[in-house]
């Protein structure tokens, strides 16, 4: 069964406008610049600014209507089938999304590729990540805690979420509650309410390690659903 805190379902272009991502401070941390914004190959270290990637942790259900999310959208159980468009594809895909595309969504994509490769299925699922308001740099601390597991995301750069990319992959996983996604017809959205240790006063490397472990558990569950007997339709 999927990890706790997962909502899934098709989203319509309704509900409140996206809130701006909150920006916090983990203390000194290196950021990996976006080569597209620096006019050439970017070095792998820079500055001391550190953006907390997608720190949102508000609940996604309305207490008065537990069958609906905060935007009024129906919330389906995570064990339900995911996406007709992706279900019919010979090579299913998943697009991980957060606001800045510098931390959580990049970590999820890297961990998914790692899990697929470990299962001998590196080419079985198309994996990508994007941001609703992408930043200019990868969160270096995110890359560091993944490198401890043998996962290298240092070559990745934040990129813009588009309708075309959502259609190409068929299924979108939104990490946290701040990124607002309006999927095209036939594309479904699964939202993960990921852990945010800073709400408990945990910061720095320990914070990022806890975020990594939470995302990893969710990624392993999704990988099992993808590979467990029929692609994205194997969500039971």
Automatic annotation (TrEMBL):
SMART domains noted in UniProt: LMWPc
Tagged with keyword Metal-binding: no
Coiled-coil intervals: none
Keyword Disulfide bond set for record: no
Domain Phosphotyrosine protein phosphatase I: 92-225
Keywords in alphabetical order: Arsenical resistance
Annotated region described as Disordered, given as residue ranges: 1-78
InterPro entries: Ptyr_pPase, Ptyr_pPase_sf
Biological process (GO), any one: response to arsenic-containing substance
Protein name, as recorded: Phosphotyrosine protein phosphatase I domain-containing protein
Protein source organism: Sediminivirga luteola
